[in-house]
Specification:
Layout: E1 2-3, H1 9-14, E2 19-23, E3 30-34, E4 37-41, E5 55-59, E6 69-73, E7 76-80, H2 103-117, E8 123-133, H3 140-150, E9 155-161, E10 165-171, E11 174-179, E12 182-193, H4 205-223, E13 229-231, E14 235-239, E15 242-252, H5 258-266, E16 274-275, H6 277-287, E17 298-303, E18 307-312, E19 316-319, E20 323-332, H7 338-357
Parallel strand pairs: 1-7
Antiparallel strand pairs: 2-3, 2-9, 3-7, 4-6, 5-6, 5-17, 8-16, 8-20, 9-10, 10-19, 11-12, 11-18, 12-15, 13-15, 14-15, 17-18, 19-20
């Protein structure tokens, strides 16, 4: 088993070699893949040409020339994680929660809200990004280990390719887990700040409705493909400093070849896009004010027509030499309030910022 300190992530970045380091939720084992073959796809249907070949996929919100679907293949190694230090990884400028929204978010919110008020959409997800300057090179190995300790229930990853750049995340949201015919997904939506030692949360009608939209859409897509569906009761799920409404759906495909078609219909779910889906996606691309690229895309292990463990790329950031770009979004309904939605994105970004700008002893 290789120790994480032996990988040499910064050297791989300098050599522009594709790689991914990841840890599945609630497990102790981490995996590393050094990309020996890289494929750029523009439609999910193109995955069929790699049927029964194990690979790692890094897919964008919307595939386009500057953000294609990236597929890397290479040998997988188990990684041993060394002890994380208690020190701050890097000093961030302006890392506190900002209570007042900026002009760009204000403008986008008004644009989105107007369409929701006139019922052109039942739900829209409005995202934003924030860039922070860093004063020194980030120790990527330490960042990864710290994330595994802080967020044991999240999917932790570091992904790099020359085209996508370096991405890091701690996703709480499963998109699709498949083992031949047996599949699992979740509907995750609605957000509150976690309260220490609190077991029961009161959820507003807005948040319950927001999650209902997501669950209904996912259920509908599954029932187009199979009638063998088992839907669990809605629960409250912890994700770092936040809690969400969660519904788990287990189902059985009639054929493993239905995997790619299902993925195409699921992604992006209303948890990161809106309803009606195609119209909402086009509206977001035209009016959100920035290019999400790989934020709210999906990633993970996949063997087309056979198996997968895929997660939605949320609670994520892009890491560059002297800066970090953090991403967060929230689901808007007609009754959404701008200040509340802004604060939700700030709290979500803080989930990632804390891994870098504070020590573990501060948590």
């Amino acid at each position: 088993m290789l120790d994480i300190s032996q990988i040499g992530l910064h050297q791989l970045l300098r050599e522009k070699k594709s790689f991914v380091l990841y840890r599945q939720p609630k497990t102790q084992n981490s995996q590393f893949i050094l990309g020996q073959e890289t494929y750029l796809l523009h439609k999910l249907s193109e995955l069929s040409q790699f049927a029964e070949e194990e690979a790692y996929i890094f897919a964008p919100f919307e595939a386009k020339e500057n953000a294609p679907i990236i597929l890397i293949k290479g040998s997988k190694q188990s990684i041993q994680l060394t002890q994380v230090s208690e020190t701050t990884i890097a000093q961030l400028q302006h890392s506190d929660i900002e209570p007042n929204c900026d002009e760009a978010y204000h403008k986008a919110f008004e644009c989105f809200s107007e369409k929701l008020q006139c019922r052109a959409f039942s739900k829209l997800v409005l995202a934003r990004k924030k860039s922070l300057q860093i004063e020194q090179e980030i120790n990527l190995e330490e960042l990864f280990v710290r994330a595994t300790k802080c967020y044991p229930s999240a999917y932790i990853y570091l992904f790099f390719s020359p085209l996508s750049g370096l991405w890091f995340g701690a996703s709480p949201e499963l998109l699709l887990e498949q083992n031949h015919l047996d599949c699992r997904t979740i509907s995750l939506a609605g957000t509150q700040k976690k309260v220490a030692n609190q077991l029961n949360y009161i959820w507003s009608e807005k948040l319950l409705q927001e999650q209902d939209y997501v669950t209904s859409y996912i259920r509908e897509q599954i029932l187009h493909i199979t009638d063998q569906l088992d839907e669990a009761q809605r629960t409250t799920s912890e994700a770092g400093e936040l809690v969400h409404l969660k519904t788990e759906l287990n189902f059985r495909l009639h054929s493993p070849q239905a995997q790619i078609n299902l993925l195409d219909h699921l992604h992006p779910t209303p948890a990161v896009c809106g309803l009606p889906k195609q119209e909402a996606k086009a509206f977001i691309l035209a009016n959100e004010g920035f290019d999400r690229t790989y934020y709210t895309g999906f990633l993970g292990e996949i063997t087309p027509h056979q198996s997968s463990k895929l997660y939605v790329n949320i609670r994520s950031m892009q890491i560059e030499d002297k800066s970090l770009t953090l991403y967060a979004g929230g689901g808007l309904l007609a009754q959404s309030k701008k200040d509340e939605e802004w604060l939700e994105t700030e709290i979500k970004m803080k989930t990632m910022q804390k891994l870098i700008s504070t020590s573990l002893s501060d948590k």
